[in-house]
Amino acid sequence: MEFTKGHGTGNDFVILPDPDGALDLTPGLVAALCDRRRGLGADGVLRVVRAAKHPEGAALAGDAEWFMDYRNADGSVAEMCGNGARVFVRYLLETGLATPSGAALPVATRAGVVRALVEGDTVSVEMRRPQLYDVATAALGGLTLSGTAVDVGNPHLVCALPGSLDLAGLDLTRAPVFDTGVFPSGVNVEFTAPGDPVSGTDVHVLMRVYERGSAETLSCGTGACAVAAVALRDAGRDTGTATVDVPGGRLTVTVTDDSCWLAGPALLIATGTVTLPTS
């Protein structure tokens, strides 16, 4: 079948066009496609399907034509992916499945309908305002770090490192241990450190992330939104703009009274055909 490869600040995806929902997208198929040695290699799969043709998107078909069926690299289903949504919109526009206009483009997801705006290389998506709801811990090696649980349509745990720890020195080759009672469906764990002031934004944060179902990734859009909300809260602000630097680049997050905008580059880098595995 045909595929496109794209990424947003290094968070990379295999994009599969399936407008009529004919593809049986099994966990095994997703994992095979995302395998970095035997497949195409990616942090996840974005299936492009009409909302009316997908059982989880049909109820949103009146608000958005297209449904983003996102799967993590291990084949598990995810509610939302911020960078994935930005790459998804880039694909819709460059393939002519959606028409550029001054209005925001709606996209249906498992977390509801998001809206997107495109300006040059930058794609911005408006998502729900992050909800900060609990204090929890993550264990990493011999470390136990306190963090804030955040809902951005999917679950996050944001752990600010004490000044004595180096963000770049964290070993994220193994998954952090968390309380499954707080996060029964798993969680993306973000580790943060303060950055130097950046003109035009209220806070600047450095971030690394271990994503459920994908291990450490170069970027996580919803994770950047969660980190921004926590950093703004810690700065005494309910709203504002944050610069979030991830290993794959820079994202800008604007938290408003009732939503959150995630902005950054979204690029398509390859197209081709792939032979699907039979088992």
UniProtKB/TrEMBL annotation:
Pathway(s) annotated for this protein in UniProt:
Amino-acid biosynthesis; L-lysine biosynthesis via DAP pathway; DL-2,6-diaminopimelate from LL-2,6-diaminopimelate: step 1/1
Q: Where is the active site?
A: 81, 81 (proton donor), 220 (proton acceptor)
Q: Subunit composition?
A: Homodimer.
Alphabetical keyword list:
Amino-acid biosynthesis, Cytoplasm, Isomerase, Lysine biosynthesis
This protein's species is Micromonospora rubida
Matching entries from PROSITE patterns are given as: DAP_EPIMERASE (PS01326)
Write the protein's name: Diaminopimelate epimerase
HAMAP family reported in the protein's UniProt record: DAP_epimerase
